[in-house]
Amino acid sequence: MKFFLPALLITVAMAAISLFVGVSEVSLLAIVSGQADEKMLMVLAASRLPRTLALILAGAGMAVAGTIMQMLSRNRFVEPSTAGTVESASLGMLAVLLLAPGLPVMLKMLVASAFALAGTGLFLAILRKVPLRSPVLVPLIGLMLGGVINACTTFFAYRYDLMQAMGAWTSGDFSTVLRGRYEVLWVACALTVAAYIAADRFTVAGMGEDFSTNLGLNYGRVVALGLVIVSMVTASVVVTAGILPFIGLIVPNLVSMIMGDRLRHTLPWIALTGAALVLVCDIVGRVVNAPYEIPVGSVLGIVGSIFFLNMLLRRRFRAA
User: Fold this and answer.
1) 78 vs 243: CA distance, rounded Å
2) Is residue 114 within 8 Å of residue 92, measured between CB atoms?
3) Alpha-carbon gap, residue 185 to 176, rounded angstroms
C-alpha cells in the first residue's frame, strides 16, 4: 500500500488538469483570486466538473467490470468490449429509441442492463459448449458474438434512420456530459463498492466451479452477482457517454502483473488506475487536435489495441 498514496495523488492531479483543459478558458488563478466572471464559473460547475467526475466514475467502473469478467471466465483477454456486453447494451439503447424514446435515463439504463446481461450470459453459455484449446479463442468468440449483435443493431438503426443517434452512444465521447446528464454513473460507483465487498467471493469463484463448491461457496449466486454488476456498470457508461473499449483489459492485467490476483487488495488499485487511464486519454484527446476533440473511446481503442497485441506476442514467445 505504500504506492497507493502516490497513485492517488497522480489521479487527483490528472483530475485537476482535466478541469482546466478545454476550449473555454477556466483559470485556476482567476478562481482563487476571486476574479473569475460568471461565465467561467458556469463552465466549471456545469461542464468541467461533471465531465471530470463522469470520467473518474466510468473509468473505475469499467476497469472493475473487466476484472470481474476475467475472474468469471478465467481468461485474461476478456472484458465487456470483447465479450459482446457493450454491443448488447447498445442494442438495448436502440430498442428504447424505437419503442419508448421518452423513457427517463434511469429506465433506459435498466433496459440496456437487461440486454447487456442477456448478451453476457449468452457469451458464457457459448464458452461452456465450445472446447477451448487456446485462451485466445475466448476473446475471438466474444468479438464474433459482438460483431453479430452490432450488425443487428446497425441494420435496425439504418432501417429506421437512427444511424446518427447510434453513433452518439458508441463513440465514447464525454464532450456532451453536463450537469444533470451524468448522475446515472453514481450507480456504477455503488456497484464498484459492492464488487469490493464481494471481492473474496469473486477471487474464489475465479478458481473454478468445483473448487468453489468444495469450499462451500454458492457458485451460481456469485456468477449471477458478477453478471449483474458487469451489465449495469456497462449500461450506465453506454447510456452516459458511449463505449469505452479495452479499459477492462488493460488495467486488470497491469495491476495483476504487479500485485497478483487477490481482489481484496487489488480492486482499489484497479479502480484508481482505470480512472487515471480514462482521464489521461481524455486530456490527450482534447489537446492533440485542439480546439477540436478526439473522443476518448478512439484514444482508448488505439492504446488497447497496442496492449492487446503485446499480450498476444508475449504469450506466443512464452509458448515458443
Assistant:
1) 16
2) yes
3) 14
Domains in the chain: boundaries: 4-319
Mean pLDDT of 183-200: 87
Buried-state track 90-126, b at ≥16 Cβ within 10 A, e below 16: bbbbbbbbeeeeeeeeeebbbbbbbbbbbbbbebbee
Q: Which DSSP letter does residue 48 get?
A: I
**Mean pLDDT for the stretch of residues 40-58:** 87
Just give the CATH number of 4-319. Answer: 1.10.3470.10
Q: For the chain, what is the radius of gyration of the CA atoms?
A: 20
Three-state helix/strand/coil letters over 237-260? HHHHCCCCCCHHHHHHHHHHHHHC
Rounded-to-integer distance, Cα 142 and Cα 148, Å: 10
Distance, CA of 253 to CA of 255 (rounded, Å):
5
Tally of residues, the chain: 320
- Mean pLDDT of the residues in the chain: 83
Top-confidence residue, 20 or 34: 20
- Residue 318: the pLDDT is 58
Residues 6+ apart with CB under 8 A from 278: 55, 56, 58, 59, 62, 244, 247, 296, 300
In the chain, the amino acid numbered 235 is: A
DSSP assignment of 3-16: THHHHHHHHHHHHH
Position 83 pLDDT exceeds 60: yes
In terms of Cα–Cα distance, which of 294, 301, 272, 288 is closest to 15? 272
What's the pTM?
Answer: 0.86
Instruction: Identify whether the C-beta of residue 79 lies closer than 8 Å to the C-beta of residue 66.
Output: yes
Neighbours of 2 (CB within 10 A): 5
